[in-house]
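Something for you to look into today, if you have time. Could you write out one complete protein record for me, on any chain you like? The space below this message is yours for that.
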Amino acid sequence: MESLLINLVSGAVGGNVAGGLLKNLNQGTLINSIAGIVGGGLGGSILSMLGAGGVADAAGAGGLDIASILGQVASGGVGGGVLLAVVGVVRNMLAK
């Protein structure tokens, strides 16, 4: 449960950071956060399914040591940023 919460929170942060860095894909704080939360959850799930070893195994096992927490934050943040980028591109294409 803790790993899911870490993924969701870091996904929301990742979505807002990506929106701040990529001004043309920024959708506003609310949509950035929602896309980030969904992307963070998906990123964490994908990382735990891949089980690539090392940090991925620790994160997938749901441990709360520093390596697993950092892995969860990274996967959630990247997942949130990537999903926000996808949402931004799709919304920009639909607006044209």
